[in-house]
């Protein structure tokens, strides 16, 4: 079965075409600047030259039409006709409490995703545009939605509720939802597979550290707690997001600086984190460079970032009364040798023993970076959210077809 | 109508605010002024306004560049033919506005909505200078445009239901503000009420009932106004407040609209509020109270 995986943003759209017989990627690409007269489509067919096309793409329907014509293009294409695509999988950011797993797209699912616009006003409408665009261009082809929040729906009440008046949960569903669920799910399963142990027997802490960063405690193969909250602002310090802070700071600063709700939101989401402390960049690579040159603000930014991550690992070890595996994934987690080094060298109380040489190896494969004596297995596992979406789509569409 | 490109006529305070707000919402804007110099000045002022928001963390540097990049500078009406809507924001001068509408009527296809940001003039009268009065409507934004989420949508006598509905959709769905429907009447709802409040504050001051600070505190703290009526007058510009009161006084003929002698005196002295650094209170060049 060939499956098209779509990740639609408000003005961009990423895609990958999978052949599920061997889970190989036939092509992937990206449409940027949707809604403008100079949109850019970058198409990378496997084993062929990358192509870039600039044209006017005003909305998502046209974007998908362009992608499909690229996939079936005489020279750059990888399939001979659209009919070869047997299913479409979509990434959706927010599944609320309604979606505990991936689901087949039908009228009820669409209605529910629309109802959740309120919780993810920046993201769910874009996903919906992607779904509609695929429907228009490929009528009758089954579609599946895979949610960033679904994996965390197993969290118990004590993890997901905030200690604020209950009525806010009852009325507006104010609670922890978490994010990066697809990634945490993928790397925790890949870790168990790598160690050749049943996931149910492992206490795993997964650190998804990219531009956004979140950390999850996985026990019995289920997410029991995660650091992002109702929105992706809570938890770890990130590139431009503050992560945890005393909520009383918000009204205090709003009052002192006469800020509007929009301004304070923008401050915490776009002007904080590494960028705010370093004053130079939100990018961990530049922060690390600054630190190596002895630049004090970069050093502080790095120290805070590392310290907060380490505290979270400690708290999740406490949450599970122990930890068997720590996994690092995503841009920074997979690539920052120095961050892993600094975190892990101060987790010896948990029995972590880092193998400095293994930690320095750069690779695209899952790998162990702890020593043989380490009581905790520490792994680096490149994440692959698109593959999870393709697999879920494959499974759900097969099940629906066999009914 | 798919609203993508919006023309904004006039680069004064309101024109700048509207152009900036529309661009921040992701729309392409064609900003029109009479001369390249005026246009450059307006564009620079928008840049300054964005810098202030950057300082307050409201936007990022990348967002500032994107917003400015969406604003195109135009000096000829003919270039507006590709706009999906045009909003006129020039000074409150009926004859000048009528000329603008007559020109727009020639340039824009007959289904394109022509809106005026007038705060008190007659839409019916403006529309009468065009061949298609059914597409003329009032869209009264309130200063500062990016922060005040209310727009009065004013129907002239001949404004069609379709024009109104499309304008309402534009206001509520595209620029995400609350649109209230108002039928033509001097000062509509917002200006009529706020000018009367200001005028009453002026009477209190004139009668020596309370000091400017105390009058403002009474409303600000007592009734949760963001600014008191006198500071509001300073921020609107005392000349604009006076002009609005005089117009309403003329139209309604009722004494309650007669402008207080205090404001007349201050306008004659050129003490116009924030824009001159002094009105009832003093302000620095960023418009903050000293």
UniProtKB/TrEMBL annotation, chain A:
Its EC number is 2.7.2.1. GO terms for biological process: acetate metabolic process; acetyl-CoA biosynthetic process. The keyword Transferase applies. GO terms for molecular function: acetate kinase activity; ATP binding; magnesium ion binding. SUPFAM superfamilies: Actin-like ATPase domain. Its cofactor is Mg(2+); Mn(2+). It is found in: Cytoplasm. Keywords: ATP-binding, Cytoplasm, Kinase, Magnesium, Metal-binding, Nucleotide-binding, Transferase. It catalyses: acetate + ATP = acetyl phosphate + ADP. GO terms for cellular component: cytoplasm. ATP binds at residues 14, 208-212, 283-285, 331-335. Pathway: Metabolic intermediate biosynthesis; acetyl-CoA biosynthesis; acetyl-CoA from acetate: step 1/2. The active site is at 148 (proton donor/acceptor). Signal peptide: none annotated. The record marks 180, 241 as: Transition state stabilizer. Mg(2+) binds at residues 7, 385. Its main location: cytoplasm. It is an enzyme of class 2 (transferase). Homodimer. Catalyzes the formation of acetyl phosphate from acetate and ATP. Can also catalyze the reverse reaction. Belongs to the acetokinase family. This is Acetate kinase. The lineage of its organism: Bacteria, Bacillati, Bacillota, Bacilli, Bacillales. The gene is ackA.
Automatic annotation (TrEMBL), chain B:
This is NAD(P)-binding domain-containing protein. One of its GO terms (biological process) is fatty acid metabolic process. Residues 187-283 form the 3-hydroxyacyl-CoA dehydrogenase C-terminal domain. One of its GO terms (molecular function) is NAD+ binding. InterPro entries: 3-OHacyl-CoA_DH, 3-OHacyl-CoA_DH_NAD-bd, 3HC_DH_C, 6-PGluconate_DH-like_C_sf, 6PGD_dom2, NAD(P)-bd_dom_sf. The keyword Oxidoreductase applies. The record marks 140 as: Important for catalytic activity. Residues 5-182 form the 3-hydroxyacyl-CoA dehydrogenase NAD binding domain. It comes from the Bacteria. Pfam families: 3HCDH, 3HCDH_N. Keywords: Oxidoreductase.
């Amino acid at each position: 079965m060939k499956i098209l995986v779509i990740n639609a943003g408000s003005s961009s759209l990423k895609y990958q075409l999978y052949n599920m017989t061997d889970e190989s990627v036939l092509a992937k690409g990206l449409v940027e600047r949707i809604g403008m007269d100079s949109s850019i489509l970058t198409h990378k067919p496997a084993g062929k030259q990358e192509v870039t096309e600039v044209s006017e793409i005003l909305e998502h329907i046209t974007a998908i039409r362009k992608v499909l014509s690229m996939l079936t293009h005489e020279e750059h294409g990888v399939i001979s006709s659209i009919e070869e695509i047997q299913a479409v999988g979509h990434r959706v950011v927010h599944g609320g409490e309604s979606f505990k797993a991936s689901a087949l797209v039908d009228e009820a699912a669409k209605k529910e995703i629309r109802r959740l616009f309120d919780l993810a006003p920046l993201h769910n409408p874009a996903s919906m545009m992607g779904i509609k665009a695929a429907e228009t261009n490929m009528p009758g082809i089954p579609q599946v939605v895979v949610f960033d929040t679904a994996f965390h729906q197993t969290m118990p009440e004590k993890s997901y509720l905030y200690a604020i008046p209950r009525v806010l949960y009852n009325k507006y569903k104010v609670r922890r939802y978490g994010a990066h669920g697809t990634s945490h799910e993928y790397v925790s399963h890949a870790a168990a597979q790598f160690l050749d142990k049943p996931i149910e027997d492992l206490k795993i802490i997964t650190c998804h550290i990219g531009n956004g960063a979140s950390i999850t405690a996985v026990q019995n193969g289920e997410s029991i707690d995660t650091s992002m909250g109702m929105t992706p602002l809570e938890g770890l310090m990130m590139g431009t997001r503050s992560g945890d802070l005393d909520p009383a700071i918000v009204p205090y600063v709003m009052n002192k600086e006469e800020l509007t709700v929009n301004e304070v939101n923008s401050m915490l989401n776009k002007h904080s984190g590494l960028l705010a402390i370093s004053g130079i960049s939100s990018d961990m690579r530049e922060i690390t460079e600054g630190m190596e040159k002895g630049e004090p603000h970069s050093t502080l930014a790095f120290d805070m970032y590392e310290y907060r991550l380490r505290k979270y690992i400690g708290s999740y070890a406490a949450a599970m009364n122990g930890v068997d595996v720590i996994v690092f994934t995503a841009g920074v987690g997979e690539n920052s040798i120095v961050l892993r080094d600094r975190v892990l060298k101060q987790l010896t109380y948990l029995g972590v023993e880092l193998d400095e040489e293994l930690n320095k190896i750069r690779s695209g494969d899952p790998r162990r970076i702890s020593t043989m004596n380490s009581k905790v297995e520490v792994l680096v596992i490149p994440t692959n959210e698109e593959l999870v979406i393709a697999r879920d789509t494959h499974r759900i569409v097969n099940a629906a077809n066999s009914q | 109508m798919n609203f993508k490109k919006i023309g904004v006529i006039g680069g004064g305070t309101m024109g700048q605010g509207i152009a900036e707000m529309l661009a921040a919402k992701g729309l392409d804007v064609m900003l029109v002024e009479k001369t390249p110099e005026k246009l450059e000045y307006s564009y620079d002022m928008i840049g300054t306004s964005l810098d202030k928001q950057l300082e307050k963390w409201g936007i990022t540097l990348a967002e500032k560049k994107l917003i400015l990049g969406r604003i195109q500078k135009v000096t000829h009406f003919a270039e507006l033919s590709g706009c999906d809507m045009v909003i006129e924001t020039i000074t409150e001068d009926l004859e000048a506005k009528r000329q603008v509408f007559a020109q727009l009527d020639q340039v824009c296809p007959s289904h394109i909505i022509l809106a005026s940001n007038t705060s008190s003039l007659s839409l019916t009268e403006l529309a009468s200078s065009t061949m298609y009065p059914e597409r003329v409507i009032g869209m009264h934004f309130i200063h500062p445009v990016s922060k005040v989420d209310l727009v009065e949508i004013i129907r002239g006598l001949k404004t069609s239901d379709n024009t109104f509905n499309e304008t309402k959709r534009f206001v509520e769905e595209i620029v995400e503000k609350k649109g209230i429907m108002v039928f033509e009447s001097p000062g509509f709802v917002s200006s009529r009420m706020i000018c009367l409040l200001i005028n009453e504050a002026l009477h209190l001051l004139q009668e020596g009932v309370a000091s400017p600070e105390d009058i403002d505190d009474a409303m600000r703290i007592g009734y949760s106004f963001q600014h008191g009526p006198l500071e509001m007058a300073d921020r609107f510009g005392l000349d604009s407040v006076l002009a609005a009161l005089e117009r309403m006084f003329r139209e309604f003929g009722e004494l309650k609209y007669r402008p207080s002698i205090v404001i007349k005196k201050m306008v004659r002295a050129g003490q116009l509020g924030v824009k001159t650094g002094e009105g009832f209170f003093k302000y620095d060049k960023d418009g903050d109270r000293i």
